[in-house]
């Protein structure tokens, strides 16, 4: 089925929206039906089948204010419609739109939309509906079998979330410890997005110095600075029409954050040494090993930037919280390195399994991978036992040092807050001002330290 043979129903109580969508889609689809009153949905669906339904998130009716779109989405499902439902939402209702994905919506479009984006989303919905009807197998399994592995409930939830959010253009923030596979998740989101044929560009922004940050991200003109010997496009330009993955976003300075926020708000960059703005069209994915609670510290990270990069967040669990996934991954790495190093078939004995399942893996999946690679290289037979699996003492030592340092910092912060509050006779506003944080931020810390 092509878009030219598709039938589309648009439901919105805004006449201007209905008119705009009808004019846009009329040349593109076989049939377009517009409806102002959602109460007529049942009657419309009883008379004909639609391939795609565009459904507004909010109506003037008082059925369930703020959730009208969810209400009517559920009704469409109750009516047994096989149409793919695309929600139309305002920027402020994105949380509700994300919830609609869990309720069975195919995707959502944010007002005001780009016409090309709306048409592409409808086209992909029609294509996937046709593939499903024909019994076509999704490529989900093959991707996850090769790179992202996990049978635990937490990982299955992440896989489900990836498939739901990937076809949208929502900005994603991936949170998790080092070595948990944040980059693999970013790649999977790109693979299932409508930008899959476009570039996927990764930048470790946490490693960029102040002097390199703008040049690396936004590009420069020849002669803009001493070593600028030629014009160079930055990573934003390289990722244009595709996906830009900014790793370790939690480690950039407030000055760098301001530069980044400006670009994301204006959707354009200016190369160093020029005054010419260049429009950019990217899907943004960010990752950090800094917990969201710490990012909320306004002295460390701009709140407006968090809102901009965090339409949807994915929290990747550490390996120690993934149950038997450790054995699944271990067997995967055994197979990988047995083939690479031309070794015979290998398996884990009982002692090896027990050792893997009892270890806390401070280095997460990455540490497991290195441990299995070393074991496969050094093994003499085709059975790996506990003595063959050695973990790096460096990882454990680093984690212990980090945890001790964090504990000490928390104690210092708690004592400082107590002293300042006491000094100001319990006046929270004055205490917050003296500490250089907002009242809200201070209340968060009072709750954190149970003060």
Question: What does this molecule look like?
Answer:
With 451 residues, the chain is of the alpha/beta class. It folds into 4 domains: 3-133, 3-Layer(aba) Sandwich (Rossmann fold), CATH 3.40.50.2300; 143-315, Rossmann fold; 321-391, Helicase, Ruva Protein, domain 3, CATH 1.10.8; 399-448, Orthogonal Bundle (Arc Repressor Mutant, subunit A). The protein contains 19 helices and 14 strands. The chain has helices at residues 15-25, 41-47, 68-78, 94-102, 115-133, 140-146, 153-165, 182-191, 210-218, 235-238, 254-266, 292-295, 303-309, 325-340, 350-358, 364-378, 393-423, 428-435, 439-448, and strands spanning 7-11, 31-35, 52-56, 84-89, 107-110, 172-175, 200-204, 243-247, 268-270, 277-279, 283-288, 312-315, 347-348, 383-384. Strands 2-1-3-4-5 form a 5-stranded parallel sheet, sandwiched between helices. The chain has a 5-stranded parallel sheet with strand order 7-8-11-6-12. It has a two-stranded antiparallel sheet with strand order 9-10. Helix 3 (68-78) links the parallel strand 3 and strand 4 (84-89). Helix 17 (393-423) packs across helix 18. The radius of gyration is 26 Å and the shape is globular. The model is unreliable at 135-142 (pLDDT under 50).
What's the quick description here?
By secondary structure, the chain is of the alpha/beta class. 47% of the residues lie in helices and 13% in strands. Strand 4 (84-89), helix 4 and strand 5 (107-110) form a beta-alpha-beta unit.
